[in-house]
Amino acid sequence: MRLLRPSADPDLLKSVYIALCQSIITYCITSWGGIATSTLLQLERSQRCVLKVMLFKNRLFSTELLHQQSDTLSVRQLYIQNILLTAHKSVLNSDDYKILSQRRVFKIPVPFSKTSFAHHYNAFLRPFVYNKAVKCCDIKYSTTREAKAKIRFWLRTLDYQSTEKLIRVVQ
Predict the structure, then answer these.
(1) 24: in domain
(2) Of the chain's two ends, which shows fewer C-beta atoms within 10 Å, N or C?
């Protein structure tokens, strides 16, 4: 990336970033996302390093400003976007969608689990985060493509604390 940045315009650099970094992170995020925070931290550090090199920023540049200037989502936000889209597709394809869409409160059932260990994995997090997101982001009647655009726009407005609140299950 460092060798490419002087000779390429920012749009090309962003395309290279999306093709190489973001696509790999998004592809594997469902297996990485529910695991310990330390692994997510390593992924976030790697992502920030690539973005800072791409945008000619120094090492102490603000992470929030970095994602605003590069128009990208953080690793946690990519994880949330991925599980929301997966949940939305399954809701749209389910037989209960017609019944759910007629209800005043649009809520899909969350699997029951007693352990906090189980709360970190997709089988629990997908419906849990989806139910939280439907309250804030209007994706109830959206197609998958429209939902992706709405979710991305909504996630770009969230700060780190709000993003963490979506993933964390309070007991």
Answers:
(1) yes
(2) C
